[in-house]
Design goal:
This protein has three domains: 162 residues, 3-Layer(aba) Sandwich (Rossmann fold), CATH 3.40.50.300; 91 residues, Rossmann fold; 111 residues, Rossmann fold (3-Layer(aba) Sandwich), CATH 3.40.50.11410. The strands form three sheets. The chain has a six-stranded mixed β-sheet, with helices on both faces. It has a four-stranded parallel β-sheet with strand order 8-7-9-10, with helices on both faces. It is of the alpha/beta class and 398 residues long. α3 links the parallel β4 and β5. The longest helix is centred in the N-terminal third of the chain and has 14 residues. The protein binds iron/sulfur cluster (SF4). Iron/sulfur cluster (SF4) binds next to loops. The site of iron/sulfur cluster has 12 residues, from loops.
């Protein structure tokens, strides 16, 4: 994906569900006018969820998720069905594709119940209308639309219906725009160590700079090692300093107490609506006991941008800070345990590659099980004794 494209986490995620051979992949191809999914008459061609970022007019940037068949068989089949169900956690809009010549089966009813329980806006797509002689007389209602992916019948209508499923009453939320004024100067501290990706900034840094531009503010981006000299060179004190969490301790010592200071991860926790939960979770580390197990969960699987923070540094810092003999378990990617009771704390990564629905779902699972949850940046700030300072900037808001 090019850097100029809408980040995947910001795109509307459309999950396509249904049994094998009902035409899920053909529906995607009809919607996009491209041959993206693998289409075959052979049952169960989609064995792993397939994600594709694309423009879907009139909606705009979306991610289409083609999922394995809900009636797959055998041990492997059950595993694939589980994967399809997991995709619900990142689905903003669900399309349940049915074979119109067969109608609703038990497998369809089961996932539909789950879709409704999760309050995901959905549409039942009755495909293969071309095989029915009385197709013209079939009734469409607000939850159901008859189409033919093969003949491209009703596809325009399908796109319109999808666009109307997007909730439009979301209040405006900003990463940092509401914390600064036009012409303010904001210093961003971005250490370039071996964990930093080569030749570019990571997504939360890019998005913060973009948001500051929208506010009419200026960003000065420096490494931690130049910060002190840079602050001396500036004619006026910055309106705000935003740092990478790992450099928090050093940066807090350099930035004068009267200059507001926070971190990228705290800004993003607020942006995603979880800040209070994460702050409470961070404070819970003081209650940990010998033998407690902590779940450390990361949103990426391959090419993790967070390097060894989750697997090496964080466990060491937590053990050092608490002085307790703690156990750690790790998950990554779309994997997230359904059973959380054995954990005393969940520490999640910033989740920049996960969409909001998935993050909210994980927070909800933790809350439902009564397990405190925090994230890397918040717990690091707490362990360094600078969490309160990094939250002060929000107290000035009305
Ligand atoms: S999703 Fe998590 S692990 Fe992946 S880059 Fe973002 S913060 Fe790091």
């Amino acid at each position: 994906m090019s850097m100029n494209n809408t980040p995947a986490a910001e795109r509307v995620h459309i999950g396509i569900f249904g049994r094998r051979n009902v035409g899920k992949s053909s529906i995607i191809n009809a919607l996009t006018g491209q041959d993206l999914a693998i289409v075959s008459d052979r049952k169960g061609t989609t064995t792993d969820p397939v994600l594709k970022a694309m423009e879907l007019l009139p909606l705009g940037p979306v991610v289409m998720i083609d999922t394995p068949g809900l009636d797959d068989e055998g041990e492997l089949g059950r595993f694939r069905i589980q994967k399809a169900y997991q995709i619900l956690n990142k689905t903003d809009i669900a399309l349940l594709v049915l074979d119109g010549t067969v109608g609703m089966t038990d497998a369809d009813k089961k996932i539909l119940e789950r879709i409704k329980a999760k309050h995901i806006p959905y549409l039942i797509v009755m495909n293969k209308a071309d095989l029915l002689s009385d197709f013209q007389h079939k009734e469409n209602d607000k939850d159901c639309l008859w189409v033919s992916a093969r003949n491209r019948t009703q596809i325009h209508e399908l796109k319109e219906r999808i666009a109307h499923l997007v909730p439009s009453d979301e209040p405006d939320r900003y990463i940092v725009r509401d914390l600064v004024s036009p012409l303010d100067l904001v210093v961003l501290v971005v250490p370039i160590d071996k964990a930093a990706p080569k030749g570019r900034l990571i997504l939360p840094q890019q998005q913060t700079i973009r948001d500051l531009l929208e506010a009419g503010a200026a960003s000065v981006v420096v490494r931690d090692m130049e910060l002190e000299d840079m602050l001396k060179k500036l004619e006026t004190a910055p309106a705000l300093v935003i740092t990478d969490s790992q450099a928090f301790r050093t940066v807090a010592q350099i930035v004068p107490k009267n200059v507001p200071l926070t971190s990228f991860s705290i800004l993003f926790a607020r942006y995603k609506g979880n800040l209070d939960t994460l702050v409470n979770g961070a404070k819970h580390i003081d209650n940990l006991q010998d033998g407690d197990t902590i779940l450390i969960s990361e949103g990426c699987t391959h090419h993790r941008q967070c390097d060894d923070i989750g697997t090496v540094k964080l466990p060491n810092w937590l053990k050092e800070h608490t002085g307790k003999a703690l156990n750690f378990e790790f998950t990554n990617g779309t994997e997230f345990p359904s059973e959380l009771n054995k954990y005393r704390l969940i520490v999640h990564c910033g989740g920049c590659m996960l969409n909001e629905r998935e993050i909210k779902y994980r927070m909800k699972c933790a809350q439902d099980s009564g397990i405190p949850v925090t994230n890397y940046g918040t717990v690091i700030a707490y362990m360094n004794g600078i969490l309160e300072r990094s939250l002060e900037i929000f107290h000035t808001l009305h």
